Every structure is written in structure tokens, then in C-alpha cells.
Amino acid sequence: MLKTIRIALWIAVAASLVGVATLLWHKDRQEQAAAFRPEFSLPDEAGTIRTTEEFKGKHVLVFFGFTNCPDICPTTMSEVAQIMDDLGPQADDVQPIFISVDPARDRESGLNEYLAAFHPAILGLAGDEAQTRAAVESFKVFADPEKTASAPGGYTMSHSSSLYLLGPEGDWLRQFEYGTSADDITADLKERL
Amino acid sequence: MMKQIIAGLGLAALLPALALAECAEVSQGDLSIRAAWSRATIGTARPAVFYVTIQNNGSTDDRLTGIETSVAGMPMLHETVMTDGVASMPHATAIDIPAGETVSLAPGGFHGMLMDLEEELKEGESFPVALQFEKAGEVSIDTEVLPIRAREAACGATP
Fold first, then answer.
1. In this predicted complex, what is the ipTM?
2. CATH number of A41-192, picked from 3.40.30.10, 3.90.1700.10, 3.30.160.70, 2.60.40.790
3. What is the DSSP string of chain B?
4. Whether A75 contacts chain B with CB within 8 A
5. Superfamily the domain B24-146 falls into
6. pLDDT tens track for B90-138
């Protein structure tokens, strides 16, 4: 009788160990899934392909926009410029990137000249349709042309308006929704740098 | 020494006041319009923006139905609308200016989109914009061109 109880207890111990191991394994899997690494591979104005890989070691602040956008895009680029100024020497560890969702038109009107007017550190990337689509999908954001008579050229872009922050390993850290003040973003970055 | 300090402090207090005073204000009927500003552009290829603050001091609602300016062939009222973090910019046929309220065309909301620019907007210059109101009629205001990096009116938009 006693022997049966002892065996039953040992079975219970084994079962609980298996249970704990399963839980740990499961948790590990979840953490791996949480390390989301969005990527881009897009040409700069000189035509050189720039990839997420090259910015390893830096925090990368990504915005999807287009230069024919009169409101949200210049407002966000002004915030980014303010952030880069306020970071002082720590700005060296942050790379702001503007990915054009209207690349053909932006290449034509000169993306670098436009971005440099806000801050010389902002890197502008404008690919072809497939490269742009790949970046948009990898970041799980939204960008679509909308036909309208009330915009130049007969179309405008609807686009995700947040700033996306990637860590030094290319891992997704967070997004800053449109309207987050430059001060708040600078404070958040300073804590990480 | 004390004199200079007092003079310096006086100047420090006066300068922002002067900067504030620079902001043009126009009144017509029940409406006062102020803090009209835009951002400098690079060339004329891209549309410019128009922001302004409109205060309705009366007891009847009014509506802003359109804008006209010599600097752009196609000025239009637009609204930035956020849906789940996605921005789109539909044409606003009219903007309500309710009685007793202040409405701002400001970053992230209503704005004038100045398309087909006739000239580059240069920092420090200004240009007139005529606002058409349903009741108050047409009101023209001088619009300051601020640096491309400007985030708000130089004179502060809130009353």
C-alpha cells in the first residue's frame, strides 16, 4: 500500500516537472516571437542600397511619408529635427530615416534637399514599387495611394503616421504616435542610449 | 551696473511682447482672425500649408468655406484624419466656426493646402490669404512664412 502511494507521488513529481518545463519552453517561444525585426532594403538618392543591417549598433527612428504631404510629414520631420538637436552628442547613436511611400514623385522633386532643410541627419530612402511594398509590409504599416481631384497629380497617400523605433540589434522597440512631443521622444531615447 | 541689469531685464520682457505683437489680427463682424502662418518651401514643386486661428465672438455660427491666395493656383481646405494611426487628408468642403468658439487650422487637423504654387515661399516674407466665410464674407489676412521646421505660429495661436 505504502509502495503504491510512493510510486504515485513520484509520478506526480515527474508530471509537475514536465509541466514546468513545458511552461518554460512556451515562455521562451513567446519571447522569441516578440523579437520582431522589421527590415528595409531601399536606395538612397545616390542609388546606393541601404539596409537595416548597416544601422546595427544605432537606434533607428523610421517614418513612412511623402514630400507632397503639407501637414503631417513636415510636422513630424520638424519634431525629428528638434529631437536630433536636443540629443546633443548622443544624436550620433540615432539614425532618423524617412521612407518614401510616393517614391517616384519624391525622387523627381529631390528627397535629400527637402529632408536636409529639416535636419542634415535625416536619411531619405525611395525605392521602386516592390522595394517600398516590402518595407511597408515588413514594418506592418499601411501606405496606399488614394485617387482624388483635390490633390496635386490627382492622388494623395494615406499612410501610417507614427515614428517607429528600432534598437541597436534591429529589434522593434516601440512606436511614437503622431502628436507625441519632441520632448517626450527625446526623453525616451535618452533613457535608452 | 544695476541700471544695465534692469534695462536688460526690461528688454528681455519686451522682446517676446514685440514678437507677439508682430502677429497680425484682423476682425470683421463677429470674427477675429489671427496667427496666420505657413512654412517656407523649397521651390514650387510641393504644396505649401496654411494655418490660422479664427475666433467667433458672436452668437451665430459661421462657416469657413474656402481660401484664395495669389501665391497658389489651387488653394484648398483639407483635414488630416487619423484612423487607427493611418493619416488621410480629405478635402474639407467647409469648416464650422461655432458661436463663441475658437477654431484653429493647425498641424494634425484642418489646414489649407496651397497647391500649384506660383512662387517659392521664403522664410521671413508674408503673403495675403483671403478667407471666405458664409456669414462674415471675405476676410484677408497677412500670412507669415516661418522656417520649414516651424511647429507653431510665432505669436502663439491660443488666446
1. 0.83
2. 3.40.30.10
3. -HHHHHHHHHHHHHHHHHHHHTS-EEEETTEEEEEEEEE--SSSSS-EEEEEEEEE-SSS-EEEEEEEETTEEEEEEEE-EEETTEEE--B-S-EEE-TT-EEEE-TTSEEEEEEEESSPPPTT-EEEEEEEETTTEEEEEEEEEE-TT--S-TT-S--
4. yes
5. PCu(A)C copper chaperone (2.60.40.1890)
6. 999 999 999 999 999 999 999 999 999 999 999 999 999 999 999 999 9
